[in-house]
Each structure stands twice: as structure tokens, then as C-alpha cells.
Write a structure and sequence with these properties.
With 119 residues, the protein is mainly α. The protein contains five helices and two strands, in the order E-H-H-H-E-H-H. The protein has a two-stranded parallel sheet. The longest helix is centred in the last third of the chain and has 17 residues.
Amino acid sequence: MNNGIIIRKFFLHVSKKEQKKRFLERLENPGKNWKYSAGDLGERRYWEQYMEAYEDMVCNTATKDAPWFVVPADNKWFTRLIVASAVIDALASLNLSYPKMDEEKLKELADVKKALTKK
């Protein structure tokens, strides 16, 4: 944590098999046609190079204060569970609490309550 900011980076890793399945769904389902890009098929030829580049990126940009979470993303429910868990852990690490109320503030609140509950 730096200056009150927590950074968590997520790489959602979809397998080549799952990617193919999702591409086919985009083509077969008119409601998902908009997700397909003409370049998608051509980019699949570079799968291995992309995997190497992603590995280099994760290895060279992960730090203690800004870690990467490489998350298997073939099953969306599982992906969401892992990401949510990491976010919850990050929030819990902040040890947040409500501010303490001093006597003056408590009196002010009591006066406001009294004024609001008068008939």
C-alpha cells in the first residue's frame, strides 16, 4: 500500500481450447456476434508468443505492493470467486473502522435527535 492505495492486478487466463469455444459461440449466437472481431482468428496463430509475453510481463511487473494474480478463466464463476476473494483480502488488510465520536460530537448528535423527535 502506498499513499492509501492498494493495487491488485489480475491476468485472466483463458485456455486456447476455451477461447476457441467462445469464438464459436460468438459466431453461432446472434446476440454475441458483436463480440467477434475479424482479427481474432489471425491472432490465434500467435498463441505461444502471447503466452511468453504475458509470462514475461507478469514476472517483470509484479511487486510486493502491486502483485499479479494469474487466474484460470475458463470457468467464469471460478474466475469471479478468485477475483472477489483477492479484493476482499485487500480490503480486509486495510483494517478499516468507523471514526470514533468524541463527547462534543455525541452531544451534537443527541441534540439533533432531540430536535427531530419533538412533536
